[in-house]
Amino acid sequence: MNTKRSLFWIVLLLSTLVVSGCKATTADQPQQWIRFDNEKYGYNLHYPPDCTFGALPGHCKEKPPEERPQECLCFINGENPDEVLLQTFLGEGEQLTLASFTVSHQDTPVYNPPAGTDLIGWIKDNFSEMFEDIPDETNMEIGGIPAVRIYSPQSPMAPSYEEIYFIKNDILFRINMLDVDNDDNREFYDFVLQSFSFEE
User: Fold this and answer.
1) pTM
2) Top-level class of domain 2-198
3) Residue 73 CA, distance from chain mean position
4) Cα(173)–Cα(166) distance, rounded to whole angstroms?
5) By the 8 A CB rule, do 86 and 51 touch?
6) For 92-131, what is each residue's pLDDT tens digit?
7) Under the phi-then-psi rule, with left for phi > 0, alpha for psi from -120 to 50, and beta for the rest, what region is 106?
8) Contacts of 141 (CB under 8 A, 6+ apart)
9) Alpha helices in 55-182 (DSSP H)
10) How would you classify the pairing of strands 197-198 and 52-53?
11) What share of the chain is helix, strand, coil (3-state, %, to 5)?
């Protein structure tokens, strides 16, 4: 009887660990996160230790998220330094939601503004068609750099999202975060943003 009871608790514990996945729920958890360095642009950020490093394995797409193994629930792909993608499923069971965090820069004139460019003016001149409301001044800092956060509400065709723009060394960076109205996603994004910094 004791053997069966012990086996039950072991199975229950393992099930809890698998279901919890990459969920970020406690303030001290990011202390164990792993640092990712983008050597080309000199920035770093942290991601959960159970995330797969590299592109999402092909077999992961064969099953719905709630049936996937842990290595299929979270990954960070930094193979292309111009677009680093961190994706994870958060929540439990069939209530999983996708969090997607992207840091990107494009080798185009729009993403390489002249020295001394005003961030807000540049965003309004070049991205006004993308957003209904662009703030008139910077509204946050990322890695100690003034930035502008622009929110887009959920639509019938897409979830809510936010984009953050900032200029470092005359390079315009864009951060995109998907489904930001979800509490788990918001907490996850806040942890990643707090970890973001540049090497001096």
Assistant:
1) 0.83
2) alpha beta
3) 13
4) 6
5) yes
6) 877 889 999 999 999 999 999 999 999 999 999 999 999 9
7) beta
8) 147
9) 119-127
10) unpaired
11) 30, 30, 40
